[in-house]
Specification:
Layout lengths: L1 E6 L2 H10 L7 E6 L9 E2 L7 H10 L4 E4 L2 H5 L2 H7 L3 E3 L3 H8 L1 H11 L6 E4 L2 H10 L4 E5 L8 E4 L2 H13 L10 E5 L5 E8 L4 E3 L4 E2 L2 E3 L3 E4 L4 E4 L6 H21 L6 E10 L2 E8 L7 H4 L7 H9 L14 E9 L13 E2 L6 E5 L2 E4 L2 E4 L3 E9 L2 H12 L2 E2 L3 E2 L6 H8 L1
Parallel strand pairs: 1-2, 1-4, 2-3, 4-5
Antiparallel strand pairs: 6-9, 7-8, 7-9, 10-11, 10-16, 12-15, 13-14, 15-18, 16-17, 18-23, 18-25, 19-24, 20-23, 21-22
The chain binds adenosine monophosphate and glycine.
The site of glycine has 7 residues, from loops.
């Protein structure tokens, strides 16, 4: 089988490594992939947002199956475009990807179908939003409607910060059109849990839960990033919470999308907060999370390709989806300065990793056969072990084997989870 994976980060590397375990996966192309992915797939220099280029490549190379991983091509209709020329693909169509691409859509969906989430108001004009803030509770959360590279959410601790956020999104168009409409919502507190799920619109199977660490610095300080590390499973996601989520959030969301005529097929990501009033949805993503995927897929015991094809063919209920009873920890190694400005082109040296440890490369390029840094988050080191404590220890032992100038990683990935586990 000839498979094509659209995207080029750590998530895509983890997907490709999992797909390769199936002997049917004879050739895997990555569009565009990256210098590290090149060890596991044939990288093709076509950007993930070049839908025409992707479709033309798929056709010319008789691709049997495609996996579209990032949000942008999904929101742009990449899966629809591939299906139009008869190529089977994993991921939601444009109509369903809107669950991530528009926060207003997802908030209104949750309200209409009684799915628990933070209370909110939608604003299309700046002045009414500013007026509303005069009377709102503080802290308050301001969200740009559209995709904003994970940066369109501001948690304002003061009224002035809240107004400044509204002015920057709606007045100064900091996120372009993505911020021309905004959501202002109630601030919630509680531990966060990420749950990725497979769904074909008929059934939904949650994967092992995980915890992201979004802030750049130890102790959850510093700026928000794409994610500096993850652990799985998430100790806050107890069996009781899982049951509640399935009944009140996961299945109702799948059914709501069906009722709206937007059947979702692919990986539906639930960003949850476990509040004292129960689990609530913070956000939906229409794709695998990154770096969540870098701990979730290493724990998958069943075959990823078989599951993905079953999702596409709407027979998910017929295939096993089983996760190991172990734990995983992923530590992201970034270029010093990220998420601000950082250097590129530094040589990356990776010594042999221990067994049960994998490296997923995100921001790196090959230059004359030498792997060099080419992005903020450079790679993730994931270790799997019987317990969370052992997985964390192994990931930190192995992350020391990665060297490049100004390499930076958080030293407390999983610390909060360990604490929760001990309680
Ligand atoms: P999002 O891009 O929607 O995932 O938001 C980024 C982060 O902002 C989330 O992971 C939460 O930590 C935080 N966040 C978003 N919405 C809220 C909320 N209503 N209350 C508290 N924190 C929030
Ligand atoms: N790690 C969060 C995300 O993928 O959106």
């Amino acid at each position: 089988m000839k498979i094509m994976v659209v995207g080029g980060g750590g998530r895509e590397h983890a997907i490709i490594k999992s797909l390769r375990k199936n002997p049917r996966a004879e050739i895997i192309y990555a569009l565009p992939g990256n210098g590290g992915i090149a060890s596991d797939a044939d990288c093709v220099d076509i950007e993930a947002t070049d839908i025409e280029g992707i479709v033309a490549f798929a056709k010319a190379n008789s691709i049997d199956y495609a996996v579209v991983a990032p949000d942008d091509p999904l929101a742009m209709g990449c899966v629809d475009a591939l299906e139009e020329i008869g190529i089977r693909a994993f991921g939601p169509g444009r109509d369903a990807a809107v669950i991530e691409a528009s926060k207003i859509f997802s908030k209104n969906l949750m309200k209409k179908y009684g799915i628990p989430t933070a209370q909110y108001e939608v604003f299309e004009e700046m002045q009414p939003a500013l007026d509303y803030l005069e009377g709102s509770r503080i802290p308050v959360v301001i969200k740009a409607d559209g995709l904003a590279l994970g940066k369109g959410v501001v948690i304002a601790e003061t009224r002035d910060d809240a107004k400044a956020a509204v002015i920057s999104m709606m007045g100064e168009k900091k996120f372009g059109d993505s911020g021309s409409r905004i959501v202002i919502e109630e601030f919630l507190s509680g531990p966060e849990v990420s749950v990725l799920s497979f769904t074909d619109g008929r059934s939904l199977v949650p994967m092992v839960s995980s915890m992201d660490h979004k802030r750049a610095l130890d102790g959850d300080k510093g700026l928000n990033t794409g994610g500096m590390g993850t652990i799985a499973p998430n100790p806050y996601y107890t069996e009781e919470v899982a049951e509640l989520c399935m009944k009140e959030i996961f299945l109702p969301t799948m059914e709501a999308m069906n009722k709206e005529g937007r059947k979702f097929k692919g990986c539906l990501y639930f960003g949850l907060m476990i509040t004292d009033k129960g689990p609530k949805v913070i956000e939906y993503n229409c794709r695998f999370g990154d770096p969540e995927t870098q701990v979730v897929l290493p724990l998958l015991e069943s075959d990823l390709l078989d599951i993905m094809e079953a999702v596409t063919d709407e027979r998910l209920a017929e295939v096993p989806v089983k996760f190991a009873d172990s734990s995983a920890c992923c530590v992201v190694v970034a270029s010093g300065g990220y998420p601000g400005s950082y250097a590129k082109g530094c040589e990356i040296i990776i010594d042999d990793m221990d067994e049960d440890t994998e490296v997923f490369v995100a921001g790196a390029a090959l230059q004359d056969e030498v792997l060099k840094t080419n992005g903020g988050r450079v790679l993730g080191v994931t270790s799997v072990a019987p317990t969370l404590a052992e997985a964390i220890e192994a990931a930190y032992r192995n992350v020391k084997k990665v060297n490049f100038e100004k390499a930076y990683y958080r030293t407390d990935i999983g610390a909060k989870a360990l604490e929760a586990e001990r309680k």
